[in-house]
Design brief:
2 copies of one chain form a homodimer. Helix content of chain A is about 45%, strand content about 20%. Chain A has a single domain, classed as Rossmann fold (3-Layer(aba) Sandwich), CATH 3.40.50. Chain A has a 6-stranded parallel sheet, with helices on both faces. The first copy, chain A, contains 8 helices and 6 strands. With about 200 residues, chain A is an alpha/beta fold. At the A-B interface, helix 1, strand 1, helix 2, helix 3 and helix 4 of A face helix 1, strand 1, helix 2, helix 3 and helix 4 of B. Strand 6 of chain A pairs antiparallel with strand 6 of chain B. Chains A, B: One of its GO terms (biological process) is cobalamin biosynthetic process.
């Protein structure tokens, strides 16, 4: 007679064998390979860090990545220092002038966004780059610092095989429409609400 | 007489000055520094990559991070190779045996989860580590491969100042309750639904 443990193990095995068949069929049904337009948006934490995690994954295969930061500028970040370890496998442009409520100067904000976009445009046509991260581009689009049609059209017409990640809250519907993968980071619970300050290694 | 451009710039400046006052007050109100228990959950992409982006940020400050992978095992990932560049600043334990529908062996899954937790427990008490990533721990908890109370209690009682990130879908309510920061990655749009396969540098 079989023990209860053996019966449980057998039931589990049968269930998982069925599940594997479903999974295998799903995987077999996915055959397209393409450069993805990825958007990380929403109010929660993880938009930029997920983009950098992806960059790291790509670097692990010996590929090159490009990063343009549209808002971050003045302050020091841990990620920038860490990516420096990869030498010329990372092309990094910190082009922001800080938050728009810090500059309080719309002309300066627009000029910074345009300069950042010029760097982005260079990376988009650089054949040595496999992934481009456009960090906080959504902020520049939200405040109309850049022309939405121009940006979306450039991203849609990126060269074949190129992956692009756009981050920032309030992604524009036209960008979401053009994207292959859109993740909304939802803040279920946030430590800022409990009075915790921005900390080294966590927020910057 | 002022031009329309000048009027717009002045309005913008006034609005942003107000906004800065609000932001400054908010920042001033946040004074707590603490090691955070962070949970990245939900069906969307970015749970693990955001954890690794955070690890990278921490490494950028010369701190050490520990990673335990509860599910990933058999297959090669770019992130593991990339983190190797940081030498002993990263302690990496790939302890998984693959998806539960691949092993089809509940005893083996439980043994793997227990072995992974033993490594996690070591990292939690290692004073040289600033951040511990418990990748896909939620999967082990969901299938009851580990005792939920034991895990949540160990995470709640982690040493002061230690940051921990737990990833994986279907985070248990008790873990969410114990956490300081919970992000739900929502899949607004996913390329798998459009027949795109898992690609190097993107999914692994």
């Amino acid at each position: 007679m079989k023990t209860i443990d053996e019966q449980t193990a057998e039931k589990h095995k049968a269930k998982m064998a069925k599940r594997k068949a479903v999974q295998d069929a799903e995987v077999a049904g996915k055959t397209v390979e393409k450069g993805l337009l990825i958007v990380n948006t929403g109010p929660g934490k993880g938009k930029t860090t997920a983009a950098f995690g992806l960059a790291l994954r790509m670097i692990g295969y010996g590929r090159r990545v490009g990063v343009v930061q549209f808002v971050k500028g003045a302050w020091h970040t841990g990620e920038k220092d860490a990516f420096a370890a990869f030498g010329d496998r990372v092309v990094w442009h910190t082009m922001g002038e800080g938050f728009t409520w810090e500059t309080q100067d719309i002309k300066r904000d627009v000029a910074a966004a345009e300069a950042a976009w010029a760097k982005a445009a260079e990376l988009l046509v650089d054949p040595s780059i496999s992934l481009v991260v456009l960090d906080e581009l959504n902020i520049a689009l939200r405040y109309d610092y850049l022309d939405l049609d121009m940006v979306v059209s450039a991203l849609k017409n990126r060269r074949e095989g190129l992956h692009v990640v756009v981050t920032g809250r309030n992604a524009k519907p036209a960008l979401i429409e053009a994207a292959d993968l859109v993740t909304e980071m939802g803040a279920v619970k946030h430590h800022f609400s409990a009075g915790v300050k921005a900390q080294q290694g966590i927020e910057f």
